[in-house]
Amino acid sequence: MFSEKNFDFGQIKESDGPVTHEFSFINNGADTIQIANVKASCGCTTPAWTKEAVAPGQSGFIQAQYNPKNRPGSFNKSLTVTLNSSSELLRLFIKGYVEPRPKSIEDELPTLLGGLRMKHRAFNFGKIKVTNEPVIQEFDVLNVTDSVIIFSDSIAKPNHINVKFEPQLLRAKQRGKIRLIYNPSELNDLGFRNDNVTLYTSEQDEKSIKSISVYATLEEYFPPMTSEELEMAPKLAIENALYDFGKLESNKKLTTEFVLSNHGKKPLEIRSVKPNCSCISTELVDETIPVGGNTRLKVSFNTAGRRGNQQKSVAIFSNDPNASAQRVTVKAYISTGSNR
């Protein structure tokens, strides 16, 4: 029926846009056939086909258009063909390799703050172990203007974050780096943090103000331990770490309890308990759990102002070196029908 069922586009360029191939066929049977549907295996492939019935001896086509935008590398896609006259499915295949287009400045540094381009408005440190050593990350910055931009020494920031500029004076179209130095030892904190840092430049008016967020998740540092030492360490175990309140009305406050146990061989210390939402409040009965003992963590959920599916978590930080950060989760469906 088809003259070919596989087609290789070879190497194509992303910058050239969509490419198209047409699979042709001849109806060699005794009956008229009609293509009912053609379904592509990916949204990147757009099919088209002969819509009219094809009589014996006549020809038709199925067209496959592949869009390589944002899809660099190898591809292998299929088209599934359904005929009105048969329950049997036919498959056609296209493949090739997309040569990525060169990245523009806008691709590389998409965020524009005044006359400066950066990758993100937020700088993410990821997980940081709390030690006396600072953690340093550098972020690229580009002056896209035709004028000099100077970073001010005046910076609004928390004490545990320091900022350096390399260089402090950026000439027109010059690249530089913003270096952030994060000192976790200056914080008595564990878990996720979102800090704000405001930079000032020599630009005019509001363009001179650059407000950025700095994200980090702080975790306790444990020195290297032998397998024997780990075996003797405390061990936090949580019984049924997920609780479903079910369907609730708005403006309700409900409480559940989670049982925290120490399955280790040394006393377990709960360092911190941090909900991820202001709608969650907690009460820990005991901060220290003896060997073989347990305690209860009360978690209250205030549904005021919330609608639909809700899922909130509470991070629990302990001196368990194997899993120092664990979570309990509560979920509910808040009915939109009541607001009493």
CATH fold call of the largest domain: Immunoglobulin-like
Q: List the strand order in the largest sheet.
A: 8-9-11-15-13
Q: Give me the oligomer status.
A: single chain
**Biggest sheet features:** 5 strands, antiparallel
- Portion in strands: over 45%
Q: Structural class, judged by helices and strands?
A: mainly beta
Number of strands: 26
Walkthrough of the structure:
The chain has 340 residues and is mainly beta. It has three domains: 6-99, Immunoglobulin-like (Sandwich); 105-220, Immunoglobulins (Immunoglobulin-like); 227-334, Immunoglobulin-like. It is built from two helices and 26 strands. The strands form seven sheets. A five-stranded antiparallel beta sheet has the order 8-9-11-15-13. The protein is extended. The relative contact order is 0.11.
Structure keywords:
340 residues, mainly beta, Immunoglobulin-like, five-stranded antiparallel sheet
Could you give a quick summary of the protein structure above?
The protein has 3 domains: 6-99, Immunoglobulin-like, CATH 2.60.40.10; 105-220, Sandwich (Immunoglobulin-like); 227-334, Immunoglobulins (Immunoglobulin-like).
Any chance you could write out the topology, listing elements then pairs?
Blueprint: E1 6-13, E2 19-26, E3 35-40, E4 45-49, E5 59-66, E6 73-83, E7 89-99, H1 105-108, E8 111-113, E9 116-118, E10 122-130, E11 135-143, E12 149-150, E13 161-166, E14 169-170, E15 175-182, E16 191-200, E17 209-220, H2 227-232, E18 236-239, E19 242-248, E20 253-262, E21 268-275, E22 280-284, E23 288-289, E24 294-302, E25 308-318, E26 325-334
Parallel strand pairs: 1-7, 10-17, 19-26
Antiparallel strand pairs: 2-5, 3-6, 4-5, 6-7, 8-9, 9-11, 11-15, 12-14, 13-15, 16-17, 18-20, 20-24, 21-23, 21-25, 22-24, 25-26
